[in-house]
From TrEMBL:
Record's keyword terms, sorted: DNA-binding, Repressor, Transcription, Transcription regulation
Signal peptide annotation: none
Gene Ontology MF terms in the entry: DNA-binding transcription factor activity; transcription cis-regulatory region binding
Protein name: Ribose operon repressor
Domain Periplasmic binding protein/LacI sugar binding, residue spans: 2-247
Keyword DNA damage: no
A Pfam family matched in the record: Peripla_BP_1
Keyword DNA-binding applies: yes
């Protein structure tokens, strides 16, 4: 018996941590995960999901993605589906999400509480809702603190290490004054730390930083990264448990 798993990139530490929770939950159930990648392309995600259905998987787990809710509903007529990063619940589709706006607010408020007022934000991919929501949380925290939003302090990233490094290079090269950085995810922060070191700036002595995700490696980065924790592994467990319940006709709350 098999369950399909749609991830985006096989080398993603975020998705792999979630997949670890899926695999652990499936141990001893008789189900084996079959993993495919969508590469953040809606049509490719749909094609891969249809491929899984054609291979007669018993259900599909989506570890975030761009596929639309309507497409999920239509595909769920063929197999039950559970998805992370979506907000949809029907008879055959269940989803789980985190409050990214609140997380962005908390990250920014942490830096504000340290006394910072010039806080840079390195964005994620803005075609992904979690990046938009984290930016909104950042802006909300600044607004409540009475600090005017400065677009010069907001730099495009792409949720990758190199994106974080290049964002710091942009800030430094343009002589933009900042004392702290909120990175849209931990991978961005790893690259940002390197970018700051290349500019002879130290974390945390010169620049304070906070990430988002709490990936396992963040404990071992240099310095250890302060970050907003997402229940990544636990979400993988919940996704697998919920899909098994859907397959067995048990309603989970």
């Amino acid at each position: 018996m098999t369950l399909g798993v749609l991830t985006q990139h096989l080398d993603s530490p975020f998705s792999n941590e979630m997949l670890r929770g899926v695999e652990k939950t499936l141990e001893g159930t008789g189900y084996v995960p079959v993993v495919v990648s969508g590469h953040w392309k809606s049509q490719q995600e749909l094609d891969r999901m249809q491929l899984l259905i054609d291979r007669r998987v018993d259900g599909i787990i989506i570890l975030t993605g761009h596929v639309s809710q309507q497409s999920l509903i239509e595909l769920s007529l063929q197999v039950p589906i559970v998805a992370a990063g979506h907000d949809i619940n029907t008879a055959q589709v269940r989803s789980f999400n985190v409050n990214n706006s609140l997380g962005g607010y908390m990250a920014t408020q942490y830096l504000l509480d340290l006394g910072h007022r010039k806080i840079a934000h390195i964005l994620g991919k803005m075609d992904q809702k979690d990046a938009v929501d984290r930016l909104n949380g950042y802006r909300q925290a600044l607004s409540i603190a009475g600090i005017e939003y400065n677009p010069d302090l907001v730099v495009q990233g792409d949720f990758s290490e190199e994106g974080g490094r290049q964002a710091i290079k942009h800030l430094v090269a343009n002589n933009i004054d900042f004392s702290a950085v909120f990175c849209a995810n931990d991978q961005t922060a790893y690259g940002a730390i390197l970018g700051l070191k290349e500019a002879d700036l130290d974390v945390p002595d010169d620049i304070s930083m906070i990430g988002f995700d709490d990936l396992p490696f963040s404990t071992y980065s240099n310095p250890p990264l302060t970050t907003i924790k997402q229940p990544i592994y636990e979400t993988g467990v919940k996704l697998a448990q919920t899909l098994l319940s859907l397959i067995n006709g048990v309603m989970m709350k």
